[in-house]
Amino acid sequence: MHEKLKQDDFRGRVAFVGETLGPLFLQDPVKGDAQTVFAAIADLDPLQAGCEWPFVDDASAQRLLGLMVEGLGKGIDDDALVWEYRRLFVGPAKKPAPPWGSVYTDRECVVFGESTLALRRWMRENGIERTTDEKTPEDHIGLMLVLLAWLAANKSELIEPYLQDHVLTWSSHFLDQLAEAAEHPFYEGLALLAKESLEGLQRELDLEVAYPRYYR
Question: Which UniProt keywords apply (predicted)?
């Protein structure tokens, strides 16, 4: 029973990270289902919430949640916040840090590169249905965090290979670039909190990752 409780606690922490952070990469603050997540972040006490954030040491979590709360200080419909999301993730201008894995790991720096197709094959082999249309690459960081949460709830035995082979291979590299490119405290904090959460999860699971060459 004690071991089951530990496993349930671990799965719950993994699901929390994916469910909380994933939507913040996928939607701007004034559209879609992510509004409730943005509002919940805005109401946080960073000092208290940082002590409870999974896989990240308290001081780092407090600092990064503090950046995110600061960035939401003018409301989730603040023009600067909305436009920063669109600058980073939508365009039409060239994105300073594209959110797809194959942009960094494919020699041609393209979406739908080999790493995208490898993830698609892995999902198919493990009976994981796509939640997006065929035109949306599966290796968008937001989608991958949401999938991490889904695995925690439904196929927890796949968490390790998913992280080891498909997420951690590029996530820190990308999230460092995103934090550097961000011109708004919310998205700088989001990028670094996601990075530290995934790296903390890597340490907890003691995962050895074969890092590829990065082309961007």
Answer: Chaperone
Each residue's pLDDT tens digit, 144-192 = 999 999 999 999 999 999 999 999 999 999 999 999 999 999 999 999 9
Distance of CA 190 to the CA centre of its chain: 8
Q: How many domains does the chain have?
A: 1
The whole domain housing 166 covers 2-205
Residue 172 lies in a domain: yes
Does residue 210 lie in a domain region?
no
Residue type present at position 60: S
Buried-state track 91-125, b at ≥16 Cβ within 10 A, e below 16: eeeebebbbbbbbbbbeeeebbbebbebbbebbee
Cβ atoms of 152 and 195 within 8 Å: the answer is no
pLDDT per position as a tens digit, 24-60: 999 988 877 789 999 999 999 999 999 999 999 999 9
In a domain, 216, yes or no: no
User: Is pTM beyond 0.85 here?
Assistant: yes
Decide: 175 and 131 in contact? Cβ < 8 Å. Answer: no
Instruction: Return the CATH number at 113.
Output: 1.10.3480.10
CA distance 145 to 30: 21
Classify residue 54: in a domain, yes or no.
yes
